[in-house]
């Protein structure tokens, strides 16, 4: 029984299609992460500025994306905005946009947290030797913040990759969506095929996410070793 | 100087972010009120515009064999897909398929993601209020399956006996409201209900006839004794509410395909291998 189930993966082009779906997933996640992380760093730096209005607006942006579930955001951008404003993007672009904005929001908080946890005397010493604000961030704060924020950032990256499994809800042909097609098409012939299809999807996500989370753990350990001698 | 530039940049970004927020806020707050009014002139896909664009976007299922699914070669096939390709061919445009699931078929139309829905879409009064249905191309109704040794061929044979159904199906609905003398044994899933029939927990089982046809094909001891009972339900192409141009064109297309015997051919190539010999095209196809 179990033996016949695994064959569902090797029928026709099934396995190639699953990898095709995985590629769509990875592509969307990668583009969204690059855009989101860059925007997030900029927003995070801005959130440490003294202007109250600016901080309030960015805080609102963060809370908006952090509180609203990703599914709702996807529906909002895919079905509701086009109806209201006539902006009509293909599903893959909507997905990339939503994930980039979400990543940026979360990242801005990570960066802000890292910047304000750089010891205060560092900032004050920088100001005392007459650095401009730009120089202060460029040479003093950001380099020290990077190592503080790295583990949290990698954690965010793995979360974003995992959450791409929601994309099937807005008709993106990601790996989960292709998996369901394969399961339903072969239900009669391979009743146990569902186990193998989701099994291989599990392995795919694991292979992508686990090295990242391992790396994050290692970085954090190293940082602590450095900090505590 | 530097400091000033930084501030300006910050202000600009802040304004952009807040604008995005306000706009998206608008979208969500007016969601409930606006479903009836379609204001955008661009959101219509008339036959002319589709021809000019060169593609028709059609919502289909990707996981419902034999109506709309993907075979192991990765091609979209099925009864609905054959029709979809024929429609595109007759419009002289390319089809572009958007895969949907049952509960976003209406949204896909209303938010202008697709021009036409061909996803086993059953006509119901509720759906008629939000989309426009063209002429139906398929019919389904409740059927009753029973062992060949003790076949049930009339509803009167069921009086006072146990009939197996799945909760929430049209079959349950029909027998509860129209045949109150039939005792119902209700189950949660298809697998459970078929197992119950095999264990003789009831004299027969009622469900959508197309499911039953597919099931008895692998079960030589059983037969669909009552092929159709209660009101018929129709499966039809749907367009966005108010899209008269495409609606009229689709109506004409369904009629002309019917006259050419297209649906019989479609039935024989896509559905017959699933339903077996017991079923005739006239049980499914509309004449």
Automatic annotation (TrEMBL), chain A:
<keyword id="KW-0472">Membrane</keyword>
<dbReference type="GO" id="GO:0043190">
    <property type="term" value="C:ATP-binding cassette (ABC) transporter complex"/>
</dbReference>
<dbReference type="InterPro" id="IPR035906">
    <property type="entry name" value="MetI-like_sf"/>
</dbReference>
<dbReference type="InterPro" id="IPR010065">
    <property type="entry name" value="AA_ABC_transptr_permease_3TM"/>
</dbReference>
<feature type="transmembrane region" description="Helical">
    <location>
        <begin position="20"/>
        <end position="46"/>
    </location>
</feature>
<dbReference type="InterPro" id="IPR043429">
    <property type="entry name" value="ArtM/GltK/GlnP/TcyL/YhdX-like"/>
</dbReference>
<dbReference type="Pfam" id="PF00528">
    <property type="entry name" value="BPD_transp_1"/>
</dbReference>
<feature type="transmembrane region" description="Helical">
    <location>
        <begin position="195"/>
        <end position="216"/>
    </location>
</feature>
<keyword id="KW-1133">Transmembrane helix</keyword>
<keyword id="KW-0813">Transport</keyword>
<feature type="transmembrane region" description="Helical">
    <location>
        <begin position="58"/>
        <end position="81"/>
    </location>
</feature>
<keyword id="KW-1003">Cell membrane</keyword>
<keyword id="KW-0812">Transmembrane</keyword>
<comment type="similarity">
    <text>Belongs to the binding-protein-dependent transport system permease family.</text>
</comment>
<dbReference type="InterPro" id="IPR000515">
    <property type="entry name" value="MetI-like"/>
</dbReference>
<protein>
    <submittedName>
        <fullName>Amino acid ABC transporter permease protein</fullName>
    </submittedName>
</protein>
<feature type="domain" description="ABC transmembrane type-1">
    <location>
        <begin position="22"/>
        <end position="213"/>
    </location>
</feature>
<dbReference type="GO" id="GO:0022857">
    <property type="term" value="F:transmembrane transporter activity"/>
</dbReference>
<dbReference type="GO" id="GO:0006865">
    <property type="term" value="P:amino acid transport"/>
</dbReference>
TrEMBL record, chain B:
<protein>
    <submittedName>
        <fullName>Amino acid ABC transporter substrate-binding protein</fullName>
    </submittedName>
</protein>
<dbReference type="Pfam" id="PF00497">
    <property type="entry name" value="SBP_bac_3"/>
</dbReference>
<dbReference type="GO" id="GO:0006865">
    <property type="term" value="P:amino acid transport"/>
</dbReference>
<feature type="domain" description="Solute-binding protein family 3/N-terminal">
    <location>
        <begin position="55"/>
        <end position="278"/>
    </location>
</feature>
<dbReference type="GO" id="GO:0005576">
    <property type="term" value="C:extracellular region"/>
</dbReference>
<feature type="signal peptide">
    <location>
        <begin position="1"/>
        <end position="20"/>
    </location>
</feature>
<keyword id="KW-0813">Transport</keyword>
<keyword id="KW-0732">Signal</keyword>
<dbReference type="InterPro" id="IPR051455">
    <property type="entry name" value="Bact_solute-bind_prot3"/>
</dbReference>
<dbReference type="InterPro" id="IPR001638">
    <property type="entry name" value="Solute-binding_3/MltF_N"/>
</dbReference>
<dbReference type="GO" id="GO:0030288">
    <property type="term" value="C:outer membrane-bounded periplasmic space"/>
</dbReference>
<comment type="similarity">
    <text>Belongs to the bacterial solute-binding protein 3 family.</text>
</comment>
């Amino acid at each position: 029984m179990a033996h016949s189930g695994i064959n569902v993966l090797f029928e026709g082009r099934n396995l190639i299609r699953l990898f095709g779906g995985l590629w769509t997933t990875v592509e969307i996640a990668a583009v969204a992460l690059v855009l989101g992380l860059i925007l997030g760093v900029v927003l995070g730096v801005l959130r440490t500025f003294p202007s109250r209005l600016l901080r309030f607006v960015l805080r609102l942006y963060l809370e908006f994306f952090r509180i609203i579930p990703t599914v709702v955001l996807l529906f909002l951008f895919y079905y509701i905005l086009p109806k209201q404003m006539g902006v009509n993007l293909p599903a893959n672009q909507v997905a990339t946009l939503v994930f980039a904005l979400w990543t940026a929001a979360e990242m801005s908080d990570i960066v802000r947290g890292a910047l304000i946890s750089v010891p205060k005397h560092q900032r004050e010493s920088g100001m005392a030797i007459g650095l401009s604000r730009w120089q202060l961030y460029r040479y003093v704060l950001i380099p020290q913040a990077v190592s503080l924020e790295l583990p949290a950032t990698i954690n965010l990256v793995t979360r974003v990759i995992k959450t791409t499994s929601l994309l099937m809800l807005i008709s993106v042909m990601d790996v989960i969506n292709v998996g369901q097609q394969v399961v339903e098409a072969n239900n009669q012939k391979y009743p146990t095929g569902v186990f193998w299809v989701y099994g291989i999807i599990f392995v795919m996500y694991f292979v992508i996410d686990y090295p990242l989370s391992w790396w994050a753990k290692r970085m954090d350990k190293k940082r602590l070793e450095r900090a505590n001698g | 100087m530097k400091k000033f530039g930084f501030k300006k940049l910050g202000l600009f970004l802040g304004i952009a972010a807040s604008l995005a927020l306000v706009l998206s806020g608008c979208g969500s707050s007016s969601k409930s009120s606006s479903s009836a009014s379609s204001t955008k002139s661009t959101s219509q896909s008339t036959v002319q515009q589709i021809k000019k664009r060169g593609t028709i976007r059609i919502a289909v299922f990707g996981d419902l064999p034999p109506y709309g699914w993907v075979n192991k070669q990765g091609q979209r096939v099925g009864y609905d897909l054959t029709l979809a390709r024929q429609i595109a061919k007759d419009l002289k445009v390319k089809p572009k398929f958007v895969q949907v699931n049952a509960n976003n078929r209406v949204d896909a139309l209303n938010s202008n993601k697709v021009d036409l829905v061909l996803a086993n879409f059953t006509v119901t009064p509720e759906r008629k209020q939000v989309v426009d249905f063209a002429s139906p191309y398929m019919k389904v109704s409740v059927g009753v399956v029973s062992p060949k040794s003790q076949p049930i061929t009339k509803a009167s044979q069921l009086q006072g006996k146990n009939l197996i159904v799945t909760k929430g199906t049209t079959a349950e609905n029909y027998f509860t409201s129209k045949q109150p003398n039939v005792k119902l044994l209700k189950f949660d899933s298809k697998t459970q209900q078929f197992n119950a029939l095999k264990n003789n927990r009831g004299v027969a089982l009622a469900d959508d006839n197309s499911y039953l046809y597919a099931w008895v094909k692998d079960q030589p001891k059983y037969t669909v004794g009552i092929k159709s009972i209660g009101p018929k339900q129709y499966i039809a192409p749907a367009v966005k509410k108010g899209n008269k141009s495409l609606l009229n064109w689709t109506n004409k297309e369904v009629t002309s395909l019917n006259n050419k015997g297209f649906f019989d051919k479609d039935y024989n190539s896509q559905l017959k291998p699933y339903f077996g010999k017991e079923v005739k095209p006239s049980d499914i196809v509309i004449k």
